[in-house]
Amino acid sequence: MNFILTGVNHKSAPVDIRERFAVSESALPDAVQRLAQYPGIEEALIVSTCNRVEFVARASNGAADLSGFLAQEFGLLPEDFRKYLYEYRGQDVIRHVFRVASSLDSMVLGEPQILGQVKEAYAVARAVGTVNSGLDALFTRAFAVAKRVRNETAVGTSAVSVASVAVDLAKKIFGSLSGRVVYLVGAGKMCELAARHLLAHGAGKILVSNRTPERAQSLAQRFNGQAIPFERLYDTVDEADIVISSTGAPQAIFRKEHGEKFLHRRRNRPMFFIDIAVPRDVDSAMNQLDGIFVYDIDDLQSVVTSNLSDRGEEAQRAETLIAEEVERFLARMQTANVVPTIVSLQEHLETVRQAEIDRVRGRLGELSPEQELAVEALSRGIINKIMHTPIVTLKSAARDQSATTLVEVVRRLFNLQDRNAAGAAASDGKGGKENV
Q1: What is the signed CA dihedral for 98, 102, 108, 113, rounded to 10 degrees?
Q2: Closest C-alpha to 236, from 214, 258, 204
Q3: What does the DSSP assignment read for 408-421?
């Protein structure tokens, strides 16, 4: 993809220069269409805010000169504005767009408005037809990267309460809190506040258990949840992804042996215990179990304190994350040409597997469910081992000039028909042979 980006922002130009490039909301549709029609441009998008004006394009040959468009569009001589412009191409465009969407290039680090502004610019460009596969892939990924930066770093937030820190930690463990089951053990204010934060970030069902049934019922009703009798606590708590405990018990009510049983019943799906009780409700030995994460009140408070001073450290973490995402995006682009062959190979071998099972099924006689599963697992395991080396080799070679040759070799070795060619032959009724 021949991406090009040029623009001015709060770091490269004073406001009196930036305003000369500003594109109003009403003028944006026409302006982005003119950019898309500029010689050498295939796709276009314009981001215009009070702190930045950026012109993003995919060029047909990578040689388009956006400064010429700026001179034409704004009636400026190149010598009047060139020193204020920055320009990126190729991989640098990807990195810059990811950073902008993630608010790492903003005047106020972590401010949320820029993501909405970029989304609006993207929506305008799509509406007028100047965004196609290239810029669409770039910006939709940028939005996902921005979400990941917000979920996995504290750049955009400075948690100032134990409850909000608990939410941040839960999101780091589970990624998304959507639909996660929360179990409140105890019915105090801290449990209620943490639950409200979790629900606000997408958590689903709320279960409440307390030694006083009336208090559990009252709190459950507030969240449209379910009250659980305290004597059934150990039988039901494994239903939860997130457990918030604050009972006031004189000793731990959750110990390592409990955790082992919970994990067994959950088939090792992770659990997150937020222990805001003093004395603690959760034995620290629970943290020794893979799949159980325990944070007590001191852990949470230390995160609160560090969040107030570690914005720079979080920004660096975000930069590292973006660098990873840029590499991932490039790899995805570079492997796109081998994906059809990989899919064809998988489909071909799956067809062979199913045909062989069907062929010998009559000789095997009636199989029990366990035997059916064993045959399925064995045959799938063999196919996966056969596919592993060709797929890894294809993906690795995708970045080399030899990729086209290797794709052809694999298709010939496994007699993979080109699905597009086959479809064309079938549709024209000629039944011709595949062009290899």
Answers
A1: 110
A2: 258
A3: HHHHHHTT---HHH
Calpha distance 337→276 (Å, rounded): 52
Residue 178 and residue 296 share a domain: yes
pTM for the model stands at 0.50
Nearest to 202 by CA among 173, 229, 179, 230: 179
Dihedral class, residue 159 (left if φ above 0, else alpha if ψ from -120 to 50, else beta): beta
Write the DSSP assignment of 61-76 as a string of letters. Answer: SS---HHHHHHHHHT-
**Given the residues 50, 336, 413, 426, the one annotated as active site:** 50
By residue range, what is the domain housing residue 57? Answer: 3-152
What are the tens digits of pLDDT across the range 8-62?
A: 988 898 877 887 888 888 899 999 999 999 999 999 999 998 778 999 999 986 5
Task: Verify whether residue 191 is a known catalytic residue.
Answer: no
Q: 138 and 31: one domain? A: yes
Mean pLDDT over residues 258-268, rounded? 93
Q: What's the rounded Cα separation, in Å, for the pair 272 and 170?
A: 7
In a domain, 312, yes or no: no
